[in-house]
Amino acid sequence: MTADIVVAGSVAQRPGRGGHTWVFLQYLLGFRQLGYHVLFVDRLESEMCVDHVGEHCAVDQCVNLSYLLDVLRTFGLERNYAILCGGGTRVIGMSRQELIEQVRRSSFMFNIMGFLDDGEILSNCPRVVFLDIDPGFGQMWRELGLADIFSGHDAYVTIGEGIGRPDCTVPSCGLNWITTRQPAVLNQWPVQPSGGDGFTSVGSWRGPFGPVEYERTTYGLRVHEFRKFLDLPRRTGETFTVAMDIDEADHADLARLRRSGWRLCDPRSVADSPAAYRTFIQASKAEFMVAKNMYVQTRSGWFSDRSICYLASGKPVLAQDTGLGAIYPTGEGLLTYSTEDEAVAGVEEIRGNYDRHAKAARAIAEEYFDSDKVLTVLLNKLGVA
Question: φ and ψ at 147, to 5 degrees?
Fold first, then answer.
């Protein structure tokens, strides 16, 4: 089967991270639903591979590979993948020559965060599109001369919908950025009954990148924002549960979260697969979303792929404002906050008018994040018929 659209990204590197996996599934399943043949390209080196007890092992025996193949089978993509190993000398799923031929005959490749760096494969693609899902970091790295993850691409797409607006401080790097909403394949996220177990969220406390110093300003991480809202359980009397990837080295934060009344879950136990992640979200009352300081300070317009899944499930979202008010309707279904007092008011509003906000949440997902609409608009912006 020849691929019309190639999606390159990292799933095998993070086995058991259901939320991370959904980022890629939304594009693969969304393009397939539009009638395109899709091909997913990943990379897996021996130093990344671990067995079920966390010990390094060969590629063919590692949980990384078994996790990815299980995900692909679950969603009917078991014939739509190629995994580069050994520096690209070995390809699982097809031969290297078959991969190059499929890439050559494709319409274009979405290279998510510039993950694929195989020069021969990229040079054989008619068009390589950089898809930026972490706006601000790559742009500032390039301006500071730290790294250039954008080179070698023909077009540039970002989910930072504020980029290019007067109040957004993410540098454009002289590139022509195409902005896009993130897609949700709505039939994968049906509306669930009202109620649920309090406000929840899933994510990383710090994430893979460190803070960035740019033009005399420090742009930080989620931890730097979350600390501002630790008193919410006490102030609202509401249940807050977070499946947050927090390293034990952050023991002071862990202790304060527990003292403040937060319920802590290990995301690797409650969201260890796409299905488990979906179940966790759909068993919630609503989401309390805290953004990375980078997104908040730059007014990037970033909106979480996770929050979109809550909305699609009929779960209201209380989101930290990253400039969202200029992009999406807020106040029903999707509420924003900047201060702790605003967050408290948002919790009380959702709790007091829950059914109205739940209905509005799904309506927002259908209007703004339906993969059929989002990906069709994006393809049009890219000039793809």
Answer: -165, 150
Tell me, yes or no, if the pTM score tops 0.85: yes
Summarize the confidence of residues 277-301 as an average pLDDT: 97
**Which comes out higher in pLDDT, residue 220 or 247?**
220
Element (H, E) at 374: helix 371-381
Q: Which helix (H) or strand (E) holds 219?
A: strand 217-219
Distances (CA, A) of 60 to 45, 95, 339: 11, 16, 49
- How do the domains of the chain map onto residue ranges? 5-183+371-381, 186-369
**pLDDT at 197 (0 to 100):** 81
* pLDDT higher at 208 or 366: 366
Question: Taking a C-beta distance cutoff of 8 angstroms, is the pair 365, 372 a contact?
Answer: no
* Contact in structure between 276 and 266 (CB atoms under 8 Å): no
Residue 312 sits at φ, ψ, to 5 deg, of: -60, -30
Q: Are 251 and 333 in contact (CB under 8 A)?
A: no
> Of the CATH numbers 3.40.120.10, 3.40.50.2000, 3.30.310.10, 3.40.50.300, which one belongs to the domain with range 186-369?
3.40.50.2000
- Asked whether 53 and 11 are in contact (CB, 8 A), the reply is no
- Which of these, 302, 307, 378, 314, lies nearest to 139 by C-alpha position? 302
Joined together, the tokens standing for residue 369 give 């994040």
How far is residue 116's CA from residue 87's CA, in Å, rounded to a whole number? 11
